[in-house]
Amino acid sequence: MLPFFGDFYGNPSSIHSVGRKVRAFLDDCRERVAGVWKCKASEVVFTSGATESINMAICGTARFLKPKGRHIITSAVEHHAVLHAIEYLVNKEGFEKTILPVDVEGMVNPQDLENAICDNTILVSIMAANNETGTIQSISELGSVCRRSGVCFHTDAVQWFGKEPFDNILQFNADLVSICGHKFYGPKGSGALFIRSPLLLDPILFGGSHENERRAGTENMSAIAGLVEAISLFVPSPVFDRKLMTPLVDKLSSLHSLPGVNLVCPSANRLSNTCSFTVPKIDSITLLASLDLDGICASSGSACSAGSLSPSHVLSALGNNDNEASSLVRFSLGRETTEDEINFVLDKFPTAIERIRTA
Ligand code: PLP
Question: 173: which residues sit within 8 A by CB, 6+ positions away?
Fold first, then answer.
C-alpha cells in the first residue's frame, strides 16, 4: 500500500508516465481479483467498502430494472446497509418490499423465498453470513431459487469471505456479491462488488468514467492494493482457519453455562470465529463497558451501530423480546487469538456481570 503515497502517487486516469504505471497496477489488481474469483476482470468493481457495494448493487439494480417491476425481497436479519437502502427505495421511489422471516437459528427458508417471488419481483438480497449471530445461509440454494425464477440475486458476503472455503464467485449463484477488505485483514474503507455480466446497473455516483463507467471517482489506490493483497492471501485458503478456531470458540461457548447467559444460535452452522451471547436484564453497552474495564474488546450487535441502545433487529427477528435483544455481546476471534486469551475472558466474564448486577 505504501508506494501509492510515494513514488506511485500518480492518478491512474492521468496520461503521463507515472499515471500510466499506476493504471497498469490497477489493471493488474483487477486481474488478480478475477483470478481468485474465477470471473472476468470486467466483472470486478472496486468501491470504498461494503456499504457502497451494497448500495450500488441494490439501488443500481432496482433503478435499472424498474421498467420490469418494483418488488424487492430481503430478509429480516440483513445489515442496515441493505435494509435502509431498500427502505429508501420503498419510501422515496415507489418500490415494494417483502421481508422474509428467519427461524430461531437465523436461517431463511428457500420455500419462503420461492413463495414470495412474483411477476413484479426484480431483486432479492440475502446475506451469506450474519454479522451478529454468525449464522451461515444456504446461499447457493437461495441463489438457485432466484435463478430458476429469472430474478436478480445479490448477496452481502462481507462476513463470509476469508472464513469459509472459497472456490469461485459463482458458487453463490448470485449476480451481485458485495465484500469489504477489513473483515479479512485488508484495509478499512476498501471493498468490491462482483457484477455478473451482462447485468447493467444505474450508477449511484455521478462524475468521471472510472471503473468502466460504473463508479465515478478517483480510485483509492492504496486501499485497492491492500484489498487485493488480502483477497489473494486470505480468501482461497480462509485466514480464519476453522481447525484452529473451533477449539477456541467451543471453549468460549462454555460461558453459556453461567446463570442468565445464553449462547446465540447454538445449533446453527456458524462462522468459525463468531460467538455471541445474550445476558438478559443487562444491556449490551453496560456489559461492553464492564468488559472493557478488564481490557476485553467485544461488540454489541453490529459494531457499526455500537453506541446505540436500540434492541438488535437481528435478535428480534430470531424471536427474542426487547430485553433479550438489547443484551447481545459478540466475540469475534482473530487468527492471533490464543487459548490464554480465551481463558482470560472465561475468568473475567463472571466478574464483569457481577460488577453490573451489584452496582
Ligand atoms: N454488511 C455486513 C454483514 C457487515 O458486517 C458490515 C459491517 O460490519 C457491512 C455490511 C458494512 O461494511 P462497511 O462498514 O465496510 O461498509
Answer: 139, 140, 141, 142, 143, 144, 146, 147, 153
